[in-house]
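Hey,
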Amino acid sequence: MIRPQDCEILQWRSFDDEAAFFASMGRFFASARVRRECGGYPLSDGPYHRWFVLRRQGDTRILGFVSLEQHPDVVRLRDAYLRAEARGRGLFRTLRERVLGHVDQLGLACTTRAPQACARLLARLRRAFHPG
């Protein structure tokens, strides 16, 4: 069983090491399943993107991620994904809390777009998310 305490969360930027980034993340960018689960849109990356990547300690296999796009005045939560075998174990909650903690430290406004099916999940976080 995969538990949050057995995992680590890393911050990656493709601009820091593009070859290493895409060697690990490329399969997610190429996956039709990931695209469907991320609202039907392909993943995107750019100079303003930061990726919070979840994996087991000591393992290079990525279990999930959340991407942010940070501009001078706003942070956009872009994409989030967790592998099926890692779901239902509190891992996404741990990842989300780390990301929101990072956003809080920046002190910037934060926006996101989410599929309608996710609205009920975000409604539980009313203190963090407000419909716009």
